[in-house]
Amino acid sequence: MRIEQLIYLVTLFHYPSLTVASEHLYISQQSLGKAIKELESELHTDLIIRTSRGIDFTEQGKEAVEMASSILSQIDEFKNHFSHFNHSTDSLAGNLLVLCCQAAYPQIMPKTIRTFQQIHPNAKIITMERDGLYLPLLHLQLYKERKDTEVISIINLPSLEEYPDIKIPDELSFHPLCKTKWLACVSKNNPALAKMKKISMKTLLKHPIIVQSPDYAYNSTSCIDYFLFNRFGTPNIKMVIDDLELFCQAIETNMGVSIASNICTNVSRIKNSKDMVLIDIKEKQTVQLGYLITNDMEDSPLVRGFVQALKQALKEFPFK
After folding, report:
1. Residue 166: its pLDDT value, please?
2. Could you read off the pLDDT of 199-236 as tens digits, one per residue?
3. Contact 286, 199 (CB under 8 A)
4. Which residues, 6 or more positions from 214, have their beta carbon under 8 angstroms from its beta carbon?
């Protein structure tokens, strides 16, 4: 049994399609299929079932995924522990301000910061959670104000071709890391919507909209949720919330509908909800999670170190 087989298994679970999973793993479908078959042979049990819709996991397969995820997490902790000692002489110091969109903040930031601090304990990190659409302007503002601090923004950015009104200032460059997508959030108590396999944005717009944003009160046009809905019609904003628990309760009690990035699907509050349903959106989406930096930060050791920690954290969170 090889570690890469466990990585393949976990990735296939989160992307239940040989085509999609192999793309994320940067290997061929044949190599992925062969690795899973070899693992099944070694374990003497069937882990997956191929269907016309993609890949389903057997009960033994789901159990194997859970154990594999735990093993991979322990391996990363093992590596990070000794990386701290191995890199102690290369430990970086300085101030780093990390701006992060709401979608990535609760899921990815804790692991990223923990990994970064283990290797660079002398670096000081300041984090701010902000709406993704507001990040570029805030980034430039803080970059100019804080001369002794380096700045990086983690952002979930829709395609600028699909959304030409989104502007990234020339002083900033976007570096994509992985593909993501938005999902519709509806209540299980709304059977007309909850039973749908896919739902259009225009269908969602027929219902009251719940917006989750820390910046809507200051400027609604800097709210990514409002911006995405507004492309397909005028949203009837029922409630604006800046708290994950309240957001979930509002959806679960059928006060309205909303959208959320699939980055959030592994957040325990959403993942374990029995009354919230996440549904694929019909419209084409080209969305990427990545980071923004000013052009002069390209060669910054502090920024590069944080990006490496971010990439490591993303390996643990393949998104459905």
Report:
1. 80
2. 999 999 999 999 988 777 666 666 888 888 988 999 99
3. no
4. 102, 129, 130, 131, 242
120 contacts 91 by C-beta, under 8 angstroms: yes
Is residue 242 assigned to a domain? Answer: yes
Tell me, yes or no, whether 320 lies in a domain: no
> Is 223 part of a structural domain of the chain?
yes
Q: Is the pLDDT of residue 40 over 70?
A: yes
Residue bearing tokens 């466990």: 6
Q: What is the per-residue pLDDT for 89?
A: 45
Distance CA 13, CA 128 (A): 32
CATH code for the domain in which residue 136 is found: 3.40.190.10
Please indicate, yes or no, whether residues 274 and 297 belong to a single structural domain of this protein.
Answer: no
* pLDDT at residue 88, as a whole number: 47
Same domain, 277 and 198: yes
**Residue 110 to residue 100: CA distance in whole angstroms:** 12
**What domain range is 202 assigned to?**
182-281
Residue 229 lies in a domain: yes
- CA–CA distance, 320 with 272 (Å, rounded to integer): 15
DSSP state of 300: -
Are the C-beta atoms of 150 and 170 separated by less than 8 Å? no
CA dist 200 and 240 (Å) reads 21
Tell me: the pLDDT tens digits for 113-165? 988 988 888 899 999 998 888 899 999 999 999 889 999 999 998 887 777 77
Work out how many domains the chain is built from and give that number.
Answer: 3
Mark whether 25 and 174 lie in a shared domain: no
pTM: 0.70
Specify whether 175 is located in the same domain as 197: no
pLDDT over 70 (residue 246): yes
